[in-house]
Amino acid sequence: MMFLIGDEIPSPAAAQTRSTVASADAEPAPPALPLTHAGALPRALLSATPELMSVALLITAFTVAATTLPMFLDARYLLDRSTVYMEVGIMALAMTFVIAAGHIDLSCAAILALTGALTMKLHATLGLPMLPLLLLAPLIGGALGAVNGVVVARLGIPSLVVTLATMAGYRGLAQALIGDHSLPVPAAYAGFDDVLLAGTALPMPVVLFVALAIVLALVLHKTLFGAYVLALGTNGEAARYAGIPVGRTAAGVFILSGLAAGIGAMMMCSRFAFARWDHAMGLELDVITAVVLGGASIFGGRATIIGTVVALLLIGVVQSAMGLANVDGEYQATANGALLIFAVIASNLAARLQGRQTR
Amino acid sequence: MTTAGATPIAEDRLIPLVSGEKLWKNFGGNDVLKDAGIELRAGEIHAIVGENGAGKSTLAKIIGGAHTPTRGVVRVRGAVTTIPNPRSAIAQGIALIHQEPLTFPDLSVAENIFVGRQPTRLGRIDWTTMRRDATALLGRLGARIDPRAAIRGLSVADQQMVEMAAALSQHARVFLLDETTASLTPTEVKELFRVMRQLQSEGAALAFIGHRMEEIFEICDRITVMRDGEIVARLLTRETSIPEVLRLMVGRPIEAMFAKTVEHALGPAMLEVRALSRRGEFRDVSFTVHAGEIVGLAGLVGAGRTEVARAIFGVSRPDAGELRVNGAAVTIRSPRDAMRLGVALVPEDRQHHGLLMPNAIWRNATLAVIRRLSRFTWLRNGSARRQAADYAARLRVKCRDVRQPVRELSGGNQQKVVLGKWLMTNPRVIILDEPTRGIDVGAKAEVHRLIADLAASGVAVLLISSELPEVMGMSDRVLVMREGRLVGEFDRATATAERVIAAATGQAPPAATAA
Amino acid sequence: MESTVVSQPPMLPAAMRRVIAARELPILIVLVLIVAFTAVTEPRFLSTDSTRSILVSIALLVVLAMGETLVLLTRGVDVSIGSMTGLAGMTIGILFRDQYVENVYLGTLLGILLGAALGAVNGLLVTLCRVPPIIATLGTMGVYRGLTFVVSAGRQVDEYQLPPGLAGWSVRGPFGQGVVPWVVVAALGVAGMTAVLLRFTRIGRRVYAVGGNPEAARLRGIAVGRVTFGVYVFSGATAGLAGMLYASRLGAINPEAIGSGMELMAIAACVVGGVSIFGGSGTVLGVLLGCLLLGTIETALAVLGVADAWQKVAYGGAILLAVVADGIAARRWGGSSSA
Fold this sequence. Notes:
The complex is a heterotrimer.
Chain A lengths: L11 H6 L2 H7 L13 H8 L1 H20 L6 H8 L3 H15 L7 H19 L3 H26 L3 H20 L4 E2 L19 H19 L1 H11 L1 H6 L4 H27 L1 E2 L7 H11 L11 H20 L7 H27 L1
Antiparallel strand pairs in A: 1-2
Helix pairs in contact in A: 4-15, 4-16, 6-10, 6-11, 6-13, 6-14, 6-15, 7-8, 7-9, 7-13, 8-9, 8-13, 10-11, 11-13, 14-15, 14-16, 15-16
Chain B lengths: L17 E10 L2 E11 L4 E5 L6 H8 L7 E6 L2 E3 L4 H6 L2 E4 L11 H6 L5 E2 L2 E2 L1 H15 L14 H14 L4 E5 L7 H16 L3 E5 L3 H7 L2 E6 L2 E7 L5 H9 L18 E10 L3 E9 L3 E6 L5 H9 L6 E6 L2 E3 L4 H6 L2 E4 L3 H5 L6 H5 L15 H14 L16 H13 L5 E5 L7 H16 L3 E5 L3 H7 L2 E6 L2 E7 L5 H9 L10
Parallel strand pairs in B: 3-10, 3-11, 6-9, 9-10, 15-20, 15-21, 18-19, 19-20
Antiparallel strand pairs in B: 1-2, 1-4, 4-5, 7-8, 11-12, 13-14, 13-16, 16-17, 21-22
Chain C lengths: L10 H11 L2 H18 L6 H26 L7 H17 L6 H24 L5 H20 L11 H5 L13 H19 L1 H11 L1 H6 L4 H27 L11 H11 L11 H20 L4 H31 L1
């Protein structure tokens, strides 16, 4: 009944006389496989299709804007505009990890608001000095992210649902904490976005973003944690069987996302000069848009920091151009949404063409 | 075709219900089917056999509408037709039953049978009629399944019955059974065969794709043998024999498949399992594997062997029992713990547990040792690639280079990548769960050679396999599990096929139990 | 042929098991507890006005949640329903304001049709262009919200610009000026229709089949693409209707506020009501109870004098509690049988 191909059962004695093993060993080992070959570069390029799509869009948008809007190439204007977007940018860098791990974090903007509210409340009521609070803020954000991480990793509940819940919960806590009014930050601390890096025209938020982008790019692509994240997003079960600490990795990406939101909180409070419970309302969607526009697969396993950065640039260019062309800020959502859909459809098409080529 | 199960008409005996002529199928530049022809006649059960990759499933899927042929003609009752999709196949009376039943877990049995065609009254679904019809259909198959039950929680065998009932309800006259017995117990196989005979007596044509020769010779009237996409023989079962079919399938002598090296001295006990239990899975399992020893773990699918392996490796937590690795009592909470102790597991399900399919060979091969290959969290990909290339060459993985995604490799080569991944961890204990499932004969021999080499180098090997010849050929000792318990232990001298089967099925008391 | 007779398993145990295992039961219990506790501490909670206010606010949620339920059942998600509500509501509001349309019912019909058209765009993106649902609807969420500003030029449509009958829908009902205004009747109508669709029509059962096992659905001859497309159209249509209910309830249509954040509330109601975000399982009754529970929590807290902010926290807590309980239940019952 259980017999499969090869019904004859070799007797132990017969098996011993068959010495295929010995003879196979005697053969010279085949030469090691070549690591590279002629087709490597084109294939590498093709496999980066989603990112290329964003780059192409970026170049197009930039060219169109530069040729039609005379003010557009003013570097100072661009840099000044970009500071508005740096909180989203930093959260998007962290969200790249979350999405790479096959998860999603809808609560990041709520974490930003709650962290801002909490730090400013600590300052206002307990009189804690700002400097330690600046360092504490990312930790608060990280702790709030850890709640998501633990629930997702321990209980195995889909992150979409968990972070949907904490999104409402954190937002409510922020409001409960400071009410409906703005809580001002000390004057000395306001206006971080107007400070330039010494000797350059670079505003500090941009400097911080670039530094974080470089660090996180290295973390995602060159460190163990990054490899764990990508393995988790590709196939969580296989990653677990290979001894990868999948629970800790999943918790890690949510902590990272919270941490970034904590940094974003300090930047936003400084930029507006006050904390509010409805800070960054709805920005989680901008953050996710940026990451997906940057070529990350929403199913996990494939994402690059450079892609996210390009996508942020693209959104920034479009936003700046629209600002110059006197288009209302409200239409920004339309542009972002259209960009997102267009980029995904285009890279789908490219992938299909590519598939036809190799098949 | 209006009344299903009508008495077979005389002409059905002459004109095949379905036939394929000169069928070709090309996938990614490879011809997986070359000039294949087949005729399925009313009232006949027709086996299609061949090694993995021989093209049996492709042939069945073309007739079942899941694939379209690159070239060739399909006829239904003698008339040329096209079967662009499964929907069209079923409309023409052809049903394809899969190894993994394609059912809807949250819907009831009755709905699974009638999905998309539920009986309605005044535009509303008539649940009463639907249940009654389902009961009648299941009754015709002799299946005792409650039509109101949810599919979730039904056995694979019962789900297959539901699929057959669904096919019957659509007046199918041709049933293509693609490896349907692979995950059934012997009792369930008997039940399936009874249903197949019932359908046969009603004048249906059945194609049976399988690996188990005894089953094929028990149930089938005709055998079509395939090799490398071609039909190599069309035989009547009563005029042929198992060895002949096997010879035709393989196309070369099938000796030298199982290669256990010469006896060598056993080392100390490396893996000791004492009274291990996990509720609902296995109970009171105790055994020891020594360094340099291959211990086979035989049993039917579902006997609890994979579950024991998972518990040892820390994928699941046992409720009770003790584990010792290299003489020391240990607690293993996760695969990570197991790996730290030098225990490795090559899982049964390559795709879901073994590999990151879209990733490169080198990433997969080095995944388990990624920590060792990094320096202070910093990955050293160059060195990882070199090591992976080294292993790939040693294991003779056929690939362009180690940057190729494993998804593009054949089953055998994928398995070698999984093996390579665990060999890189330099394990002291390795558990192999069905290491040769779904790979071709050539790769199989290479895997067997590897296992033997591992044992020779002093690794303790626990080999779980449902292929009796493999377990018996490779193992120094054979353990047998049945219904979650260890029921027999045989050394090389006492292990015979009859005894192992008897222990596995519980049909007769095990003849010899050596401590 | 009919040689064997299947013995009919006894009826009672199955029925009993169904009641005990019903996903709806715990929600109902929690709901009753909340209502009882609030009513005891604050009797005016059960007053006509209070009840009507709960029901009117829930009506909007129910309508949207019905659309979302269908989408979730097919393993999709529609985060654009808030924006579709906004765009459809705003557009019809402008048609009313500029007196292109004066009949309220015609306007509502147009709103539903417009919503369906917007949903069809989602459906095409998901089926034809194979954009993952979350991405497609995330994109259109932005596009539609922006278009709401385009059509309205950022200006609000005020109460006097809307047909006078519209606001009355939220006050008067078939039984006069009572607890059950027309808005609630409409919501119940949509829920009833959805329930019948899902339970008693082939189309509805196909929705479950597609979500339960898309591959099997395809092989069993179900036009998966058409079903998927259909649920997004339905979701759009419910959003269109919700736009009108919104206008009725608030009296005015603000381009920024209308429908904003509703997508998350609707998803929350579905999840609390036991719809699996992995598709294939969930009932209208459960979703109704989910809406009722979330709406009641909101009002109960307000009546008990708890700040608006804590309502959000309770909201989040309810979602978490529901899914955690589901997860544990699945591990206890589903886990052992599948092993």
